[in-house]
Design a protein that fits this description.
single chain, Heat Shock Protein 90, 2 domains, two-stranded antiparallel ribbon, rod-shaped
Length: 381
């Protein structure tokens, strides 16, 4: 309030000092309009309490300086009284309007501050909610991981331990055929354990964002042949057919990661198809890329599961307890991540006659697009 009074007095003094030299050339109406401005400024600073003070101070200044006889409060003409009354009315009106605007502005600022505080609180609550959901998801994934991995770790370890115990038992007389069977079981379960650990390591790299590609021009038939040879024991009860033409262009891929993709898809096909059925791995050049597909004739994948099947730790049919619910649920998630890291997409379709077909595309190496005379020196280099 005091600040508003001070602004009013200073404003009246400045306005009076500026108008007095021109007093004889201006009308009282002009002086009155100018002297309303300090009243408005004082109210803008001091609010409603500055209205009566400003109007009274302006009225006295207007009468004392600009109403003849000057420098007295004596008024002789009736029209001067009218001017003073009009000034007082205008000053009151302007002061009240300015005070209301000032109050409305402060209320708006208060509402804005309240809204900002509410928004900040909302953001905090949203962040807290997201954190809770994230922790719940982490717990869910941890539970799914421990539940599936613990089973899949115990199974091969139990088989390996039983086989080694039998082989190491001096009192157990084993035929050559039984000994070979135990050694083969140990080797197969060790390979299975190695694949599981590899999947765990790959999943941890993917989750940490540390999946780095080391691309090179790779002959696909060589890569496929190596994977098929390594997984041969897994397909002892299946017919694995490789349909990879020799004339395919080189693919620009990370050899080890794509080898993991093929291993996971073939292992998935062997695990989910009945013994005696066929599994085909085929490849073909399509629209400047090489498409690879693993085709089986098992139970297939239901339409509603074709997107979720690539989620981490998701196991189709696990709710029903069927054979499709086995496995850790990591293999296809890793496949999807590696394929997408190469710039491609993987899809699952129904195999004609029944079953599932997992297909994805790989980029062609630029070396494959060079003419023969330019490609030969590059290959030698």
């Amino acid at each position: 309030m005091l600040a508003g009074w001070a602004v009013t007095l200073v404003g009246l003094a400045v306005a009076t000092a500026g108008l007095v030299p021109f007093r004889s050339g201006i009308t009282t109406a002009t002086a009155a309009l100018v002297l309303v401005v300090p009243v408005a400024l004082g109210v803008a600073v001091g609010g409603f309490p500055a209205v009566p003070f400003g109007v009274v101070a302006g009225f006295l200044t207007f009468d004392f300086v600009f109403i003849p006889p000057y420098y007295t409060f004596y008024v002789t003409a009736g029209e001067d009284w009218v001017s003073l009354v009009v000034y007082a009315c205008v000053g009151c009106t302007v002061g009240v309007v300015v005070a209301r605007l000032r109050r409305a502005q402060r209320e708006a600022e208060a509402r804005r501050a309240e809204a900002q505080a509410l928004w900040a609180e909302r953001e905090r609550l949203v962040e807290e909610s997201n954190r809770v959901r994230l922790l719940e998801e982490v717990d869910r994934l941890r539970g799914a991981l421990m539940g599936s991995v613990s089973h899949d770790l115990r199974t091969p370890l139990a088989s390996i331990k039983a086989s080694i115990s039998d082989l190491a038992d001096p009192g157990l007389h084993l035929s050559d055929e039984d000994r070979a069977l135990l050694l083969r079981t140990t080797e197969e379960e060790t390979d299975r354990l190695t694949r599981l650990v590899t999947n765990l390591l790959d999943m941890s790299r993917i989750q940490a964002g540390a999946l780095v590609l080391h691309r090179s021009a790779t002959p696909l038939d060589e890569l496929v042949g190596g994977v098929a040879a390594r997984l041969a024991p897994l397909f002892r009860d299946h017919r694995l057919t490789l349909d990879v033409p020799e004339g395919l262009p080189l693919v620009d891929v990370d050899y080890l990661l794509v080898e993991q993709v093929l291993s996971n898809l073939l292992e998935n096909a062997a695990r989910h198809t009945p013994a005696g059925t066929g599994v085909t791995l085929r490849a073909a050049a399509v629209a400047g890329e090489v498409e690879v597909a693993v085709v089986d004739h098992g139970p297939g994948v239901a339409e509603e599961e074709r997107e979720r099947i690539f989620d981490r730790f998701y196991r189709p049919g696990a709710q029903s307890g069927g054979p499709a619910g086995t496995g850790t649920g990591m293999g296809l998630a890793i496949v999807k991540a590696i394929v997408e890291a190469h710039g491609g997409r993987i899809r699952v379709e129904t195999t004609p006659g029944g079953g599932a077909t997992f297909a994805f595309r790989l980029p062609v190496s630029r070396e494959a697009e060079l003419p023969d005379d330019a490609d030969a020196p590059a290959a030698r280099a």
